[in-house]
Amino acid sequence: MQAWDVVIVGGSIASLRAAIAASDAGATTTVLSSAASSAYVDDAMSCGLATSSGEADPSTHAADTLRVGADLCETDVVAQSTNSAVSYLAELEKWGLNVRRNRRGTPHLGQLPGQSNPRTASTGDSTLREVRSILEEQCIKRNIPRRGDVEILNIVMDGDRATGLIALDVQTGEIFGIQAKSILLAGSGFQSAWNGDGIAMGTAASLALRSDIPLADLEFTSMHPLTVAETSFCIPLDVLGSGGIVNGADGQPMATEAGPDALAHSIIEAGGASLDLTGISRDDSPWFAGIARSLSSRCGIDCTIESIPLMPIVGPTIGGIPTNASGQAINRAWDAPLQGLFAAGDAACSGLHGAALNSGDHLLGAISSGATAGSTAATHAHSTKHSASTAISVALSEAHHSHDAMLTEAGSEGVSPGAVQSSLANTMRTHMGIERDAAGLSSASSKIQELREINLSISDGSPVMNTEMVSMIRTQGLLSVASAAVSAALAREESRGTHVRTDYPKTLAKLAKHSLSSGDGTVANLKLRN
Is residue 87 situated within a structural domain? Predict the structure, then answer.
């Protein structure tokens, strides 16, 4: 049985930064990802890094984050993240990030939706790729092992303590157990529940639900405003900081002060909008050449002379595994920490984003939460010992039985995972869109329950590279998370941030601090704010 100080689950930017922090703190660290180690499907960053390097202090940055988050952010987490943003940018530059610079030689900062001042540093349309590449290089320099094509099946819990994992090597079909002093979940959100693309399947959230760990704030989802209509092609918000303009049906620029999600809602309510990139200067246009090429090849649009039709789609989800300011997972239903379990990035509900994402805070949150949680996980590992090997062996045996049963039933009559994902996406887009009411949410809950009771089928009975079986496991997990999200939306009887209830006037609604959803999709606890 493998044994590590810190095991990090997920291939995201948050997971890479967490691995660096844990390794630097002296912990033996490994990263396990369901995708290939070079893939980055777990990330859905819409723009560069928000930093107050062009301002006197980070107070305005913090105020913007709190405002766009509809006052549901955790103020200590916001302060911690915004105060450290400048140092994280400097760190990335020291490691080789080539950000855009102005004539004074300082980072070029774009003013994006929701920002009171120019604040976003980027490398144009390649920020995500560049940051990932740099963090991967740092992991290689530290000899941090990273394994792809590993599907985590279960977290092994000993009371309120996480002690190990059960995993499937997709390439070989081997199921194996791992002992870990600290487990850090840093995978994707669950926006595939709306988009049906199979990319962000909520693996970390579903693992938590299988271990009866309540999730928080699942009702809040972001929307990407700069999505080309009738496609899933998302244009980085950074173009708006370099001369790009979103125009409404009347040809006038749309307001962006309230943040990217508010802009997306306005576009949807108006039935669409257009993006004009002709105002991007000759000096700035090379930084967005990749977007121009993609628009031409994928959409047949020449952005130098044509406007781009927009219709937003669901972006990264905000809710997930509740964590404290140190990145440790907590059970908010009982207001108790979970020993040995940590979360970061889209897998975590850290309190940074509140009820809506602000421009540049998504990447900042991934880096800051990854660094913090990784360091905390290493500290915890130094103070504890490996334990519960018997429990891991029992869980491993159960996983083998379940795995064998799936393979034995291959070829039996049933519905494919892809068809269920498509039906779930239709349900979520219809009833869990930008406007929601009790009748629609109840209908969604019933439909998802029907989908959970459907017999999923696969045709491949081989244990080796059985991607059909992996899709089945992920689909089952996604259905459980979607069910919990609908329950959380039903419980929040107010309009707040990205959650708009048309059947409850905002002024009369109860203001719920955090809504928690348990494994069966019911609301476990609500903390009310007056």
Answer: no
CB-based contacts of 252-259 (< 8 A; 24+ apart in sequence): 256/112, 256/113, 256/114, 257/113, 257/114, 258/68, 258/113, 258/114, 259/68, 259/113, 259/114, 259/356, 259/357, 259/358, 259/359
**Does residue 178 register a pLDDT over 50?**
yes
Domain that holds residue 296: 226-311
Alpha-carbon separation of residue 99 from 93, 125, 131, 247, 257 (angstroms): 8, 11, 10, 28, 25
CA proximity to 166, closest of 430, 513, 402: 402
253 occurs within a structural domain: yes
Distance from C-alpha of 30 to C-alpha of 512, rounded to nearest angstrom? 38
What is the gyration radius of the CA atoms in the chain, in angstroms?
22
pLDDT at 526: 39
- Residue that is last in its domain, among 248, 277, 311: 311
Residue 397 and residue 510 share a domain: yes
- Up-side HSE of residue 12: CA atoms within 13 Å toward CB? 36
Strand partners of residue 4: 180
Q: CA 61, CA 81: separation in Å to the nearest integer?
A: 10
> What's the CA gap between 406 and 473, in Å, rounded?
10
Arithmetic mean of pLDDT, 478-496: 96
Look over the chain and give the mean of its residue pLDDT values, rounded to a whole number. Answer: 92
Question: Which pTM value belongs to this model?
Answer: 0.94
Give the number of other CB atoms < 10 A from CB of residue 306: 16
Would 50 be classed as within a structural domain? Answer: no
pLDDT band at 440 (very low <50, low <70, confident <90, very high): very high
- What single letter denotes the amino acid at residue 413? E
Total domain count for the chain? 2
Distances (CA, A) of 370 to 27, 121, 181, 326, 420: 15, 19, 17, 10, 33
β-strand 2-9 against 29-32: which pairing, if any? Answer: parallel
pLDDT at residue 213 above 60? yes
What digits encode the pLDDT tens for the residues 146-157? Answer: 999 999 999 999
Tokens of 117: 């001042």
CATH of residue 240 = 3.90.700.10
Which of 293, 311, 329 terminates a domain? The answer is 311
DSSP 193-204: HHH-SSS---HH
Average pLDDT of the segment spanning 452-457: 94
Q: Is residue 277 part of a domain?
A: yes
Please report, to the nearest 10 degrees, the dihedral formed by the alpha carbons of residues 352, 356, 362, 367 taken in order: 10
458: domain CATH number is 1.20.58.100
Closest CA to 134 of 367, 390, 480: 367
Among 23-37, 338-352, 470-484, whose mean pLDDT is lowest?
Answer: 23-37
DSSP 8-class letter at 320: B
CA–CA distance, 118 with 112 (Å, rounded to integer): 7
Statement to judge: residues 307 and 405 lie in one domain: no
pLDDT average, residue stretch 123-134: 94
